[in-house]
Amino acid sequence: MTEYEQGLQGVNIESFSKENPPTPTQVVQTATLYAQVFAGYPWFEVNRCPNCESYYDQGSSAGDSCTKCDGGIIGPAYPLDKTVTDIVEALDKPGASMFLAEFSGQIVGFAWTNLRDTDEYLKRFRSMSPEIGQEVASVLSRDHDLYSLAEIGVAQDMRGRGIGKELFIRQVASGLKYNLIQTAWTRHDTIIAPICLKSGFRQVFGPELVLENGRATLTKKDIIGRSPTDPDRVLFIKT
Fold first, then answer.
1. Do 49 and 96 have their domain in common?
2. Domains: count for the chain
């Protein structure tokens, strides 16, 4: 048994869809884990202003006034009821698949995917500047649709066992039947970034990353540019 296989011992990863949804218990556990994952490194999304959608880290408290807009009162970034609804609705999207990792009766990892309209996906880049939008469009223009790999989350005490890698493998495999460009839009310091680089994905936007001793390391260059609102975000594609 390899070290990778040993790390995954006792972990059960299941695939779900609109026709085969997770149980209500699994959804609630996933929503709880989602909030925990994004409250930690590297996101630190603990609270959020509903007016301007700005996030606040551990130094904030629900009920504080937003310092970035006029009149906003911050609250939990991912309240349970709304996150449960978002997870259920995610399975209604075209081509949606959800992958949940379970260990000892608890959800310890999640990932999902879906088809996206290419023009709709490009809106964020076109809003940065016409030049950035044109450059990113030039590498995503093969098809009307693309296959989007959403964020992967793994419980803090279960990291380093290969769960994130296995979830990513399931994501990529689920999209092969569509024969479309696959994309991953994430931060440069997430667990997805080095997995993308090792899996044949090409970075086409954001602060440039290279692999050094198996780790994703920043160079001093940018590829095409950076998001003015999310400067740590990077875009990977696989054709």
1. no
2. 2
Q: Residues 162, 135: one domain?
A: yes
Cis before 42 (ω within 30): yes
Residue-level pLDDT, tens digit, the chain, 239 residues: 787 778 899 999 999 999 999 999 999 999 999 999 999 999 999 999 999 999 999 999 999 999 999 889 999 999 999 999 999 999 999 999 999 999 999 999 999 999 999 999 999 999 999 999 999 999 998 789 999 999 899 999 999 999 999 999 999 999 999 999 999 999 999 989 999 999 999 999 999 999 998 889 999 999 999 999 899 999 999 99
Q: Find the CATH number of the domain harbouring 128.
A: 3.40.630.30
User: In the chain, helix, strand, coil percent, each to 5?
Assistant: 35, 30, 35
User: Which structure tokens are listed for 69?
Assistant: 């807009």
Looking at the fold, whether 118 and 158 belong to one and the same domain comes out as yes
Do 158 and 203 fall into the same domain? Answer: yes
